[in-house]
Design brief:
This is Aminotransferase DegT. By secondary structure, the chain is α/β, with parallel strands linked by helices. The protein is built from twelve helices and twelve strands. It starts with 13 loop residues before the first helix and ends with a helix. It has a seven-stranded mixed β-sheet, with helices on both faces. The protein has two domains: 14-240, Type I PLP-dependent aspartate aminotransferase-like (Major domain) (Aspartate Aminotransferase, domain 2); 243-361, Aspartate Aminotransferase, domain 1, CATH 3.90.1150. Bound molecules: pyridoxal-5'-phosphate. Pyridoxal-5'-phosphate (PLP) binds at residues 57-59, 83-84, 86-87, 129, 155, 157-158, 179, 181, 192.
């Protein structure tokens, strides 16, 4: 058994290091020309030119996007419970109430039918997550939002470059957020990018990012410091040039795993979806945690559980509603290494390990 194969691995090269050094030498390291260039380049590369605002994290992006869209106390926004806590947290931070809906067991993304059943007169928005890099059904969810006169927002934290029915995710909602955290499909160290459907939303997010001011000391609204630095933007610009090739490698790795894994439920890509494989997630019907432990100790294969606790059950929300597909997914999912740093030998080891543990447990 060789060294442990990690579940995720950020790829940082000499060119990222050189970009940081270039900014350091310029003497201007806070938000400036690098951030402006990153926003333009990200817009052109990943969201069909839709205007973007860079912020300090994906969470800040969701929070500011929701505030800019007018979400606040008394409002409800429908979100999945099967996601990272930042999705519902960002709704709660505006003073609005996150309302949790169940997922489609095939895509792990919001189930439009269940979403419909939790719409109330207070609903102001629906925020699907393109979980694991598989796009949510934004056609059905968008139609539903329109029928009820509410907005669609996209948590695209895990889905840089994914498409739904030929169109890029991040171009469907009033706004969309992409995370640039190190384990995501591309990184800026920490950071987030918000794409917006209108110039008014762009301006509102820009104001909220910087203390509510466009012109210095003429603060128009109460805002945050959620700026991205030029150091982070410089890393992000280099990564942006690599993300398409990484996505191709992720797709190749996912194809290999699906062709060779036996005895576990492999992920499904539904019609109309172009998956970017942030995670390659199998279902283990019995003793998922024992399966993961054996995979690591006997085969040196790292894995991850995203996410073991449905968000509505976290102490921070503490709700007792029943979302059966969310519960089942949280008990069964296991994400295997699929990242672009894997060698052919690593992939063979992942397959051999998973197949052996599945067979032993059968
Ligand atoms: C990572 C992530 C976020 C938050 O992004 P940060 O950059 O870590 O703040 C939000 N939603 C989902 C689904 C994520 O995976």
């Amino acid at each position: 058994m060789g060294a442990t194969i990690p579940a995720a691995k950020p790829l940082i090269g000499d060119d990222e290091r050189a970009a940081v050094d270039r900014v350091m030498r310029s003497g201007m390291i806070a938000q400036g020309p690098e951030v402006a260039a990153f926003e333009r380049e990200f817009a052109d590369a990943l969201v069909d030119g839709r205007d973007c605002v860079a912020v300090s994290s994906g969470t800040a992006g969701l929070h500011l996007g929701l505030l800019a869209a007018g979400i606040g106390p008394g409002d409800e926004v429908i979100v999945p419970s099967f996601t990272f806590a930042a999705t519902a947290n960002s709704v709660a931070l505006t003073g609005a109430t996150p309302v949790f809906a169940d997922i489609d067991p095939v895509t792990y993304c919001l189930d439009p039918q269940h979403v419909e059943s939790v719409v109330t007169s207070r609903t102001k928005g629906i925020m699907p997550v393109h979980l694991y890099g598989h796009p949510a059904d934004v056609t059905a969810l968008g139609a539903l939002a329109e029928r009820h006169g509410v907005q669609l927002f996209e948590d695209a934290a895990q889905a840089h470059g994914a498409r739904w029915q030929g169109r890029r995710v991040g171009t469907f909602g009033s706004f969309a957020m992409f995370s640039l955290y190190p384990t995501k499909n591309m990184t800026s160290g920490e950071g987030g990018m918000v794409s917006c459907a209108s110039p008014e939303l762009i301006r509102a997010v820009q104001l909220l990012r910087n203390q509510g001011m466009e012109r210095r000391y003429e603060n128009e609204v109460v805002g945050f410091n959620a700026r991205m630095t030029d150091l982070h933007a410089a890393i992000g610009r280099v990564q942006l040039g690599k993300v398409d090739a990484w996505t191709e490698t992720r797709r190749r790795n996912a194809r290999f795993l699906s062709e060779h894994l036996e005895g576990v439920g492999v992920p499904v890509v539904v019609d109309g979806a172009e998956h970017v494989w942030h995670q390659y997630t199998i279902r283990v019907e019995q003793d998922r945690d024992g399966f993961a432990a054996a995979l690591l100790s006997e085969h040196g294969v790292g894995s991850g559980v995203y996410y073991p606790v449905p968000n509505h059950e976290l102490p921070s929300f503490g709700l007792t509603i029943d979302l059966p597909e969310t519960r089942r997914a949280s008990q069964q999912v296991l994400s295997l290494p699929v990242h672009p740093a894997l060698s052919d030998e690593d992939l063979e080891r992942v397959v051999a390990g998973v197949n052996a543990v599945a067979k032993a447990g059968a």
